[in-house]
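BUG: 3D viewer hangs when loading the predicted structure for this chain

Environment: internal workstation, default settings.
Expected: structure renders.
Actual: progress bar stalls at 90%.

Input used:
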Amino acid sequence: MSKSIPLIHKAAAITQIEALKPYIKDIWPIVHYSKLPIYLDSTSAQFIPYRAFSRLLQAAFEQLPHQAFIAFIQRGATSYSKQIAHNLKQNNKVNSLARLTDLLPIERVSSKHSTSSKYHSEFSLAFTLEDVEPFNFVGELYAIAVAHSYLIQQRSDIKKPSKYHLVSQDKSGLDKLSISTDTPQFMGQTSIALFYPSTVKQHSTTLDLHWEKQVQPFSIQASCALESYIGRQDLRLEDFSDIIKIPTRTIQRHLAQDGTSFRQIKESLNIAFAKRVMKQRNVSISEISAHLGYAEPSQFIRAFKKSENVTPLQWSKIHD
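Structure tokens produced before the viewer hung:
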């Protein structure tokens, strides 16, 4: 059976950390606890582990008053969803719910527009998230907030949901948040779903659309999850395993099936990081090697030469 590493775009963490600042004076302890990579603004990496992001949400859930937590989630999710719409425009991509599968760890998503009479029309969106137990409850709340904000930006026929479904059965979480019962919530469902009254009256009885995320090879997922830590935190396999909550042997087995290893992926990312730094900044080889976690510059030089057949200094002169 294939294994997956739930990922989310780094912009989600950047906007959510920014949304946390009005409520927590010193955010670094909570960021450190969540095991999120640091200085995400300056990394070329695009994705981070969704589990680490959900751990941040969980920590905020436990520390903030319920009204502050709801505002925190909504503020970050709204900001992130606007970036989704902006990315669509920048990339000249057709506005599509399928884009959500690129920016949320969604396995599959479907939308349905049904008309039961000429007076009643309903739009619904249903999706399943990749598992991040024990943080599924806060992860689902965040995904609902992102999806809702995204939908109302894309569609003029919907406003407020009439109900929504959660897969999580953590009723105590909803009770703690004192979420308004004006919008019914149904827990323990087979998928997360949002339902809206729609002003569009279609002649057809139903209109169904479905998308399913294409599963990437495990080695690519691991590389995406690890890249944001390169040059910031020197992760061992055991550290990486703890962040994504997949046993080390399972990681090794799946990477071996893809013809690679954790060490090979990490060294490849290290070399790519070193090349970018040498192109963009005037820094010494010893500084780069220290950032990448090498005990001695000579270790980094050997690894670089093994990969590129030239030393870092020679490569820098060639590409100056």
